[in-house]
TrEMBL record:
Keywords of the record: Hydrolase, Metal-binding, Pyrimidine biosynthesis, Zinc
GO term, biological process aspect, one: 'de novo' UMP biosynthetic process
Keyword match Iron-sulfur: no
One GO MF term attached to the UniProt entry: dihydroorotase activity
Organism: Deinococcus wulumuqiensis
Chain sites annotated for binding Zn(2+) 2: 145, 172, 225
UniProt xrefs under Pfam families: DHOase
Protein name per UniProt: Dihydroorotase
Gene designation per UniProt: pyrC
Length: 416
């Protein structure tokens, strides 16, 4: 199959160009148009984004999201590849399940699925899952995300096995005993609202412990969704020691703070919680100075009825994979600059995973996104492909919406 996208610009260039893709590869630039011809409308072309942290809820929680809706949402957000999390029902800890998810996703023609698998059976934190078989089935990462790895000895063992398999382990770094029943950041806002708080120390203490396990094992560990300044500083220090540690930050921890909880709206309830402006500023510095490796969303859809519950009872999670790039570009584009932002959503996650860094050179995989960097659009969740048709950014005017996402040389999303 051949496809030519005309009227596009490469990052950092004003030249209008075209790209032709054939059989899943980039055939070349500025060739005579061939096959289906699509107008890129003057948009900026980049490698399709990589999402290494999203909850697609299949199997078992498909009232929240499923592969079809989640991978369509990802494609609409400009993502070509998604690493889904295993905290499903049942938990993704079974090689046959990994295979069946990949097979199902392959038939959808949306974003590509690369499942992660649980590090421990049932994500119970007790016995390790069948890591070798899970890797052989196609799992690309081990994680008990959604839960915290309370048992350090089990995590140590998991790291040792993962290292021998050449795999990365990612961790939801919160000390559950410190987090306790906290529903939001512990601080003046939680005190004013009379809500149980989750202290910054829950994250920092857990990351500090995990850095020692990395030092002990030499295994690759990725810290998910950093939310605190102190957490980042501990990762920075570990990197300074030469430890094989990587970390991510999510747009919601950059653009939203615990002030949002003042109206008791569970839409802003997420784990780890929204912190303070000082934390958000520090995390942004981490993106700028390279101590944060990548941006991921932790797209965590729930039903509207669940998120409309009382703040104490509602589940944790914010869903917004479709607008993650527009949020980052509109709010932080000036500070970060486009090349850096795109790097954090393409090369950055690829490096974390140990995958080749995607480029748009001839012969490369034809996974690309065309972005409309200048037009303001209002975020209208009714149009979301995700089943979660609400988001903290609804009604806001953002720039940077994807116009077109191509995965494996085929159109996975095209804005109407
Ligand atoms: O807010 C969150 N939601 N954090 C997690 O770690 C899990 C996720 C979910 O699965 O809903």
């Amino acid at each position: 199959m051949t496809l030519t996208i005309t009227n596009i610009k490469r990052v950092g260039s004003d030249k209008t160009e075209s790209v032709t893709v054939e059989n899943g590869k980039i055939k070349g630039w500025n060739l005579p148009a061939e096959g289906d011809v699509l107008d890129g409308k003057g948009g900026t072309v980049a490698p399709a984004f990589l999402e290494i942290h999203a909850h697609l809820r299949e199997p078992g929680q498909t009232e929240k999201e499923d592969l079809q809706s989640g991978l369509a949402a990802a494609a609409a957000g400009g993502y070509g590849t998604v690493v889904c999390m295993p905290n499903t029902s049942p938990v993704i800890d079974d090689p046959a399940l990994v295979r069946s998810l990949i097979e199902k996703a392959n038939g959808l023609g949306l974003a590509r699925l690369r499942p992660s698998a649980a590090l421990t059976k049932g994500q119970k934190g007790e016995a390790l899952a069948e890591l070798t078989y899970l890797r052989d089935a196609g799992a690309v990462m081990f994680t008990d995300d959604g839960r915290t790895n309370e048992n350090a000895r089990v995590l140590r063992l998991g790291l040792e096995y993962a290292k021998s398999l050449g795999m990365v382990v990612s961790v939801h770094a919160e000390d559950a005993t410190l987090r306790a029943d906290g529903v939001m950041n512990e601080g003046p806002v939680s005190e004013a609202l009379g809500l149980p708080g989750n202290p910054a120390a829950a994250e920092a203490a857990r990351i500090a412990r995990d850095m020692e396990l990395v030092a002990q094992t030499g295994a690759r560990l990725h810290v998910q969704h950093l939310s605190t300044a102190r957490g980042l500083d501990i990762v920075r220090e570990a990197k300074g020691r030469g430890l094989p540690v990587t970390c991510e930050v999510c747009p919601h921890h950059l653009d939203l703070t615990d002030e949002k909880l003042r109206e008791f709206d569970a839409m802003y309830k997420v784990a780890p919680p929204l912190r303070t402006q000082a934390d958000a500023d520090h995390l942004l510095e981490g993106l700028l100075d390279g101590s944060v490796d990548c941006i991921s969303t932790d797209h965590a859809p729930h039903t509207r009825a669940e998120k409309e519950r009382d703040l104490l009872d509602a589940p944790f999670g914010i869903a917004y994979i479709e607008v993650a790039f527009p949020v980052m570009w509109t709010r932080f584009g000036e500070k970060l600059g486009l090349p850096k932002l795109i790097d954090l959503m393409t090369a950055g996650p690829a490096r974390v995973m140990g995958w080749p860094v995607p480029t748009l050179d001839e012969g490369e995989n034809a996974d690309l996104v065309v972005l409309d960097l200048n037009t303001e659009r209002e975020v209208n969740p009714a149009e979301f492909k995700s089943k979660a048709k609400f988001t903290p950014w609804q009604g806001q005017k953002l720039r940077g919406f994807p116009l077109l996402t191509v995965v494996d040389g085929k159109v996975a999303f095209q804005r109407a």
